[in-house]
Design goal:
alpha/beta; five-stranded parallel beta sheet; 10 helices; 50% helix
Length: 215
């Protein structure tokens, strides 16, 4: 029997996926890749296609038009995704500048539509896959834990993420992993994870296990 080929891991999403805040941009995705190799005693083929600044709308557009992104998902056995943080930040800026109390509700409705379409797009891309695969979405943490409104918005965003849970898909409980530790896990900008925060995200994804015997 020929040896199994190394699993392919593709990380998609925003600046957190791209490693912003970590030393040398060696972020959660690289660390999770290292964990897979350590846990499963195998080499991993790794692709990071995270885009700093991407919103859920931009990721959805990329899944329809970006051939590099589509190919990276087609060939992936493992997919992680961080998305939604920029949607939330944009809503917070509108709220702050205009005192628009509907900003959060509008952002939530848009994110709900975009995210469920993102998940469906990934599943559509993977329809032709003959091997098992797994998806790990990453909950939003709260960079402003002292603000009640921020806590409400983040929790509602995360509730939307959990709607994607299925036989292939789990959601990493990063909100709880960061709760009460934000001051030690966030970068100097107060928005992105620092090196320790990226490691915490990778550990949280790792804690979900590897549901398929393929890995």
């Amino acid at each position: 029997m020929p040896p199994l080929s190394p699993p392919c891991y593709t990380a998609i999403g925003d600046s957190i996926t791209a490693g912003v805040g970590a030393w040398f941009h060696y972020g959660y995705a690289q660390r999770y890749r290292d964990f897979i190799e350590e846990d499963r005693k195998t080499r991993v083929i790794f692709r990071n296609v995270g885009k700093p600044g991407w919103t859920s709308q931009q990721l959805l557009h990329g899944l329809k038009t970006d051939t590099r992104l589509i190919k990276a998902i087609q060939t992936a056995d493992i997919i992680t995704c961080s998305i939604g943080g920029n949607d939330l930040l944009q809503a917070a800026r509108v709220y702050d500048k205009r005192n628009n109390k509907k900003a959060g509700d509008l952002a939530l409705r848009a994110f709900h539509h975009h995210f469920l379409s993102i998940h469906q797009s990934i599943k559509d891309i993977k329809k032709s896959s003959s091997t098992p695969y797994m998806i790990r979405y990453i909950e939003l943490y709260n960079p402003l834990p002292e603000l009640a409104l921020a806590r409400q918005w983040v929790k509602k965003f995360n509730q939307i993420l959990h709607k994607a849970a299925d036989s292939h898909t789990k959601i990493a409980p990063v909100y709880t992993a960061f709760l009460h530790h934000e001051h030690t896990l966030l970068f100097i900008d107060g928005i992105h994870p620092n090196d320790k925060g990226h490691r915490r995200i990778a550990e949280t994804i790792r804690s979900l296990g590897y549901q398929s015997e393929h890995f």
